[in-house]
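Example 3.2
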Amino acid sequence: MDGVVEFKVSASGQMSLPAEVRHRWGLDGGGKVEVIDLGWGVMVAPSGTAVELRRELLPSQEQHAAFLADLDDPDLMTT
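Structure, written as tokens:
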């Protein structure tokens, strides 16, 4: 996988992880993933890894909240 993959989202909000990712993450038989709402996008990670990933890669919660507030979008104020 080259790092960027386009997903199709169904009308009910469902999408499928590529088989290569499911295999690498040990989800061949299904399982849970974690999603972090970034406001401008989402990050999907294997279950149990998103908190550490967010800490390593993304701004603090305070910085993130300030970013969302600057967007002036009430729907994003609860993310």
